[in-house]
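Propose amino acids for all 487 sites.
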């Protein structure tokens, strides 16, 4: 464990409160100059460059017409979005970065937040809506207010939720301070219990949320890991969890990725290397870039060692991977929030071992990105040489990912082998690691041999889940670290 990590993070996090970016001379830079960076970076790296007419290689041949084109856009983000291929349909994932320093910290689990995730559910035909607590980060405003997974909320800032006001009321969840009204439930009747007001602060989240061993599931030892993000600065914590599983000689592994929207591709390969007994250094995944960067095409292999990083994402050492040798299949708990690097683990392991999915269909993201900076001399990949006069960057999709067998067709997500809709248990959401928690129980029952293809869930036609906008745009991402290299 890195004892100094919290001190480093507190120091870094204080800088996140300063949103402006200035160089030593406070030089201004025009939107047109940033637009030039946006266009040239996208022209070079964008996965669908040849499909976008305005990214044609001849677009900047005439300097006058090129300048006039760039000047059409009032800001760089407007230009960036105009260059996305089938914006919101095919390219649902690329984004423009206002401040890459803030993004880098969020990639490592550092953000200004309540430390909470909600799920909205319409609970009856009368249009009543509740929020239940899916997750609470340790040492966050939510945990410090004794808010727990499974708590039920029916009002935000004093307004009771229903289908008529839902979209407007939930916007208050994105404010700096919010008051949540908690209720108890009995036979569908909600009874107010208390109000709690919380204010966002800088929160750092260890994605290795829970590692536990069930010692007697039909005579088997079952490892259970709740893993909420592929964050490279926690590679050693992930490896430590597998040391526990390895030392306990577990017979089965349940990997809970319900809240894991992705992250580092390298960390994804490390996790797969911990799971597959015969991994060695064989192919875990193949990455394919556009025609201008075929030299970047290559494979991410399984690994026998992993890189250790501090909170600044600076490499500080290496460790031998704690690889399991006592399991021959993998259970994965999944949801619509299981995306990108999480799906990469599922896809990458399928050619090697049976992978059984329990929950609901995953998100469906088979492409990934790199961060592009305003550093033309490096083909826009070097942060150190980025233009110091602004902090804008881009996170465009630049590669597609395939497993060893060439499979990449999961844009509609991976369907579960055993379907369990957690939200149907909205009035009885149990803590992670509780044997009776609905989705985990389905996996444990399957190990016991109790279930068939589809589990019995509380199917009630008037109960349905509702989407809540992500609290940050980086929740479903798969990216290459700045020091990436392929074999």
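Proposal:
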């Amino acid at each position: 464990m890195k004892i100094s990590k919290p001190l480093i993070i507190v120091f870094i996090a204080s800088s996140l409160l300063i949103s402006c970016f200035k160089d030593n001379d406070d030089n201004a830079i025009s939107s047109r100059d940033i637009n030039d960076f946006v266009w040239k970076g996208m022209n070079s790296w964008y996965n669908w460059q040849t499909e976008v007419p305005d990214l044609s290689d001849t677009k900047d041949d005439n300097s006058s017409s090129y300048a006039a084109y760039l000047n059409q856009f009032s800001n760089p983000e407007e230009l960036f979005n105009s260059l996305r291929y089938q914006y919101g349909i095919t390219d649902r994932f690329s984004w423009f970065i206002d401040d890459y320093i803030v993004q880098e910290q969020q990639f490592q689990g550092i953000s200004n937040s309540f430390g909470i995730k909600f799920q909205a559910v319409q609970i009856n035909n009368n249009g009543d809506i509740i929020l239940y607590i899916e997750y609470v980060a340790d040492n966050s405003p939510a945990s410090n207010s004794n808010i727990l997974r499974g708590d039920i909320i029916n009002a935000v800032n004093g307004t009771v939720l229903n289908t008529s006001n839902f979209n407007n009321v939930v916007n208050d969840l994105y404010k700096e301070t919010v008051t949540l009204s908690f209720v108890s439930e009995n036979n569908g009747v909600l009874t107010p219990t208390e109000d709690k007001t919380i204010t966002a602060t800088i929160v750092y989240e260890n994605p290795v949320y829970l590692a536990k061993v069930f010692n007697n599931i039909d005579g088997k030892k079952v490892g259970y890991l709740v893993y909420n993000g592929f964050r490279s600065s926690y590679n050693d914590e992930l490896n430590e969890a597998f040391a526990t599983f390895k030392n306990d000689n577990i017979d089965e592994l349940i990997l809970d990725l319900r809240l894991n929207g992705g992250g580092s591709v390298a960390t994804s390969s490390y996790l797969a290397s911990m799971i597959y007994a015969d991994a060695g250094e064989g192919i875990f995944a193949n990455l394919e870039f556009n025609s201008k960067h075929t030299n970047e095409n290559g494979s991410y292999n399984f690994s026998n060692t992993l890189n250790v990083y501090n909170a600044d994402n600076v490499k500080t050492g290496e460790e031998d991977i704690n690889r399991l040798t006592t399991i021959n299949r993998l259970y994965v708990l999944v949801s619509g929030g299981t995306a990108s690097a999480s799906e990469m683990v599922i896809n990458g392991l399928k050619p090697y071992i049976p992978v059984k999915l329990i929950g609901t269909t995953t998100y469906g993201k088979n492409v990934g990105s790199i961060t592009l900076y305003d550093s033309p001399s490096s083909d826009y990949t070097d942060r150190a040489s980025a233009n110091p006069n602004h902090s804008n960057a881009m996170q465009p999709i630049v590669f597609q990912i395939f497993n060893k067998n060439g499979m990449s067709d999961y844009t509609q997500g991976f369907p579960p082998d055993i379907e369990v809709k957690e939200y149907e248990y909205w009035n009885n959401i149990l803590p992670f690691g509780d044997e009776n928690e609905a989705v985990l129980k389905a996996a444990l029952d399957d190990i016991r041999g109790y279930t068939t293809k589809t589990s019995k869930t509380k199917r009630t036609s008037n109960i349905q889940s509702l989407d809540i906008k992500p609290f940050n745009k980086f929740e479903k991402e798969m990216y290459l670290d700045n020091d990436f290299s392929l074999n």
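The CA atoms of residues 370 and 479 lie 5 Å apart. Residues 1-26, 453-460 have pLDDT under 50 and may be disordered.
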